[in-house]
Specification:
The structure holds 2 protein chains of 2 kinds. Chain A is mainly alpha-helical. Chain A has one helix at residues 25-89, and strands at residues 7-10, 14-18. Chain A starts with 6 loop residues before the first strand and ends with a helix. By secondary structure, chain B is mostly beta strands. Chain B contains 2 helices and 12 strands. In chain B, the strands form 3 sheets. In chain B, strands 1, 2, 3, 4, 9 and 10 form a 6-stranded antiparallel β-sheet that branches. In chain B, strands 5-6-12 form a 3-stranded antiparallel β-sheet, with no helix packed on it. The mean pLDDT of chain B is 95. The chains are: A mainly alpha, B mainly beta. At the A-B interface, strand 1, strand 2 and helix 1 of A face strand 1, strand 9, strand 10, strand 11 and strand 12 of B.
Chain lengths: 90, 161
């Protein structure tokens, strides 16, 4: 038996700063455009989350129903086997 | 009480990923946020869900400890360009995003690090913490200038398996 080795953790960050950066109109436009792009990305991710949640719910119900049916079949087979042995034992 | 120099994934977050206590957790679609913090709170990687959450009661991440600006408002800035890198390098999995900048020029002082939390999650614990990250140079600050959280070249967090 081997012991798996591995590591994982958060990594440190840097803060990049520019003091008193000029903010003329074209810079403010760039900031505003970046905000729009970020908002569009958030919207796309939330739509994807909704789609996935609906798909996951459907898959979950189907999986649970199949598992329930299998468990019911297993229980019936176990009971039948036990009953058969009890009859055999008299 | 101090932010310290460590950067850590919350253990509770990894537990959530495994057992789905927070069943809606999905890093493929959720939008985490990055909030700035000073040196008042003491991060704890072993914190419970509430104590790892943004503005969790009695946590290191209460808004009293947060540093904000008009262009880096309370609650923080949303991550963009989020990617879980799986196929890139064998034996390694990492979570990354674009560097996180303010919405315009920012004035902040004595920033020691950031909290990365899942802003999409509302229940059973809203805004659960994912990880916290110390700045390599503390404290950081800027006056009426640009302030950008530059993620490590190896990502926000990374697993070598």
């Amino acid at each position: 038996m081997t012991t798996p080795a591995g590591a994982g953790d958060a990594l440190p960050v840097d803060a990049a700063t520019v003091e008193a950066a000029p903010e003329p109109l074209y810079v403010r436009v760039a900031y505003a455009d970046a905000e729009v792009a970020a908002a569009e990305e958030r919207l796309a991710r939330m739509q994807a989350k909704l789609d996935k949640a609906e798909r996951t719910a459907r898959d979950g119900v189907a999986t649970a129903k199949a598992g329930l049916k299998q468990a019911e079949g297993d229980l019936k087979a176990a009971r039948d086997h036990a009953a058969a042995l009890e009859r055999e034992a008299g | 009480m101090a932010f310290g120099s460590a950067s850590k994934i919350f253990r509770n977050f990894l537990k959530d990923c495994h057992d789905r206590t927070t069943s809606a957790l999905d890093l493929d679609t959720d939008v985490p946020k990055i909030a700035l913090y000073g040196n008042s709170g003491t991060p704890d990687q072993n914190a419970t869900a509430v104590l790892s959450a943004y503005n969790g009661a009695a946590s290191a991440w209460v808004t009293a400890n947060e540093i904000t600006d008009t262009n880096w408002a309370a609650g923080g800035r949303a991550l963009t360009g989020i990617t879980t890198h799986f196929a890139d390098t064998a034996g390694i999995l990492w979570y990354d995003a674009s560097d996180t900048a303010g919405a315009g020029n920012v004035t902040v002082a004595n920033v020691y690090g950031v909290l990365c939390y899942d802003d999409t999650i509302t229940t059973p614990q809203a805004d659960i913490g994912m990880s916290y990250h110390a700045f390599t140079t503390q404290p950081a600050g800027v006056t009426a200038g640009t302030f950008t959280v530059v993620w490590d070249v190896n990502g926000i967090f990374r697993y070598t398996l």
